[in-house]
Amino acid sequence: MEQKQPNIASDKMEFLASLMKEANGKSQNEVMPFLMSVAQRANEKGIHFTDEETEMLVRAMTANMSPAERKKVELLRRMSKLISAKKRKNHS
Asked: Which residues contact 32 (CB under 8 A, 6 or more apart)?
């Protein structure tokens, strides 16, 4: 079964391309802080990713991580979603 690729806007693709270049060669210890900074930088640029886009990115960036490292990333993603939901609720 072929996996559907999301349509990603050109500004997002440019941002992602630069991130992938930066991420190349980072050690497992460097990837976690890098992933956290990605969300902040995207926010500063007004770039927001859908859940589908985020899932695709995380899968690509964590492909070579150990199961323990992937669990840490997933925990951070869940925490981030909760924080975002809380912020949206407080601003509405």
From this structure: 69, 72, 73, 76
